[in-house]
Amino acid sequence: MEHGFVDSLVARSPVLEVLNIVGYIKCGLRLRLVSQSLRCIQICGSVLENIAVVKAPCLERLILSSPYTPNRGLCARLRIVDAPKLHTFGYLEPGQVLEVHGTVIMPGIKPSENAMLTGVKILSLEVRFGVRNDVKMVPTFLKCFPNAERLHIVSKKCDEPTGEPLTVKFWEESGPIENVVSRINLMTFREFKGDRGEVGFLEFVFKSARALEMVAIFMANPSFTPFSMDEALVKAQYSARNLASKSCKKCIIWSSRPEGGDPWSLRVGADFSFEDPFTVREEDS
């Protein structure tokens, strides 16, 4: 498939509402999307290089899931120019370059109002908690979505950790994050193994999130990711010892599926009867 083919196809499809791209791995996928009708874009199992949403006034869901990295060691670039109705966004990774309304989001910066996606209510992040640079990017990403009410975290496997994990002290020193403090009412955390970086993040959320009503922690499958289940359970419980929200309910779920299974499917993602595609498994729908 040549570069520009999908762009041209979308431009010539005035009633197209759902765009799914699967398995584009020959080279990095480049898209420059302009559409008056698209409501949902889903890309999975593909090499992402440059995804630009230039003008999509009806776009509500942007879901990108890629186990691959671009050739030549480059970072995937995601550019959001005009998508005023964007409501659901994932799986955003700290290793990707995010550009919002012409501003490249860099670690440690305080995003201006122009660099925020205020309409996003459901956000999903994939994070390697053993890679310090990845973790340092997460507070900045979160600040770009000040009105997010549901947060879904996937802890990606880290084959080569870089330095000591960042603990709750790092998160506290990053300053208040508006959506964590006052907006997020539901959080899921998948692939939990009890690593220090994971525990530090959970501690921070539990101590800060005043509106939190429900947290579901999905343990990694020890058959595929070796770790001590007993220690991980203790650490998950320990992370919730100080709760900002006294009404928060917590549950810990054991996984029997490879890599915790996939909490999202193309069919569910394109079905707008499901409010949150990141909480619905295919077999439950």
From TrEMBL:
<feature type="domain" description="FBD">
    <location>
        <begin position="173"/>
        <end position="217"/>
    </location>
</feature>
<dbReference type="InterPro" id="IPR055302">
    <property type="entry name" value="F-box_dom-containing"/>
</dbReference>
<protein>
    <submittedName>
        <fullName>Uncharacterized protein</fullName>
    </submittedName>
</protein>
<dbReference type="InterPro" id="IPR055411">
    <property type="entry name" value="LRR_FXL15/At3g58940/PEG3-like"/>
</dbReference>
<feature type="domain" description="F-box/LRR-repeat protein 15/At3g58940/PEG3-like LRR">
    <location>
        <begin position="2"/>
        <end position="153"/>
    </location>
</feature>
<dbReference type="Pfam" id="PF08387">
    <property type="entry name" value="FBD"/>
</dbReference>
<dbReference type="InterPro" id="IPR006566">
    <property type="entry name" value="FBD"/>
</dbReference>
<dbReference type="Pfam" id="PF24758">
    <property type="entry name" value="LRR_At5g56370"/>
</dbReference>
